[in-house]
Specification:
The structure holds 2 protein chains of 2 kinds. Chain A has no helices and 11 strands. Chain A is mostly beta strands. Chain A has one domain: Sandwich (Immunoglobulin-like), CATH 2.60.40. Chain A is globular and about 45 Å long. The mean pLDDT of chain B is 91. Chain B has one domain: Immunoglobulin-like (Sandwich). The N and C termini of chain B lie far apart (35 Å). Chain B has no helices and 11 strands. The chains are: A mainly beta, B mainly beta. The interface between A and B is medium-sized, with 25 and 23 residues.
Chain lengths: 113, 113
């Protein structure tokens, strides 16, 4: 059973639109949720992260909305650019004594010019 | 200068042959080190982690082993490759406990024929 689930394998938006990538999780012990961005042939890079004590985290064009009760979160990319085309991984970890970061299956975002 | 260096960049190996992949971290004292595996188009699966020299913990069993012979070096190996070992191997490091922020290398693409 997938502990971290990303509902869309792929998403296509037009330049300037807001891309919304969804993620849900199973384990109530998860309290840290990073999003990683990966370009083809490269390792993933941390984009933005949120802790479960917050319901929103914003960094420039990127915003995470977090719903602890529903165990889901979403990444909003405002004013999408072709350079944002990449695979986005939602991940989760439990800060108490865990060394494991669980990744979702990824959403491949394509931004059309 | 690159903080994390993985070698080789790519490998094509025969089933049953041995494998050794390496990762070196520059300029960071006593980092936590991780090995991840990514199937083509797939999610990232944590394989091993190490918080100190000589100590490696296994997360999943994939007929692979890992060692940390020096503070800045992490080695992934097997004596006998399987077809299922094909994929993208990523080394990562973190400074803080509990995988707060992982910094990934550029990976090694392994093809087993």
């Amino acid at each position: 059973q997938q502990q971290v689930r990303q509902s869309s394998q792929s998403l296509t938006v037009w330049e300037g639109e807001t891309a919304i990538l969804n993620c849900s999780y199973e384990n109530s012990a998860f309290d840290y949720f990073p999003w990683y961005q990966q370009f083809p042939g490269e390792g993933p890079a941390l984009l933005i992260a949120i802790r479960s004590v917050s319901d929103k985290k914003e960094d420039g064009r990127f915003t995470i909305f977090f719903n602890k009760r529903e165990k889901n979160l979403s990444l909003h990319i405002k004013d999408s650019q072709p350079g944002d085309s990449a695979t986005y991984f939602c991940a989760a970890s439990a800060s108490s004594g865990s060394w494991q970061l669980i990744f979702g299956s990824g959403t491949q975002l394509t931004v059309m010019p | 200068a690159q903080t994390i260096h993985q070698w080789p960049v790519a490998e094509i190996k025969a089933v049953g042959s041995p494998l050794s992949l390496g990762c070196t971290i520059k300029g960071k004292s006593s980092p936590n080190l991780y090995w991840y595996w990514q199937a083509t188009g797939g999610t990232l699966q944590q394989l091993f982690y190490s918080i100190t020299v000589g100590q490696v913990e296994s997360v999943v069993q994939l007929n692979l082993s890992a060692s940390r012979p020096k503070d800045d070096q992490f080695i992934l190996s097997t004596e006998k490759l399987l077809l299922s070992h094909s994929g993208f191997y990523l080394c990562a490091w973190s400074l803080l406990r509990d995988t707060e922020t992982l910094y990934f290398g550029s990976g090694t693409r392994l093809t087993v024929l």
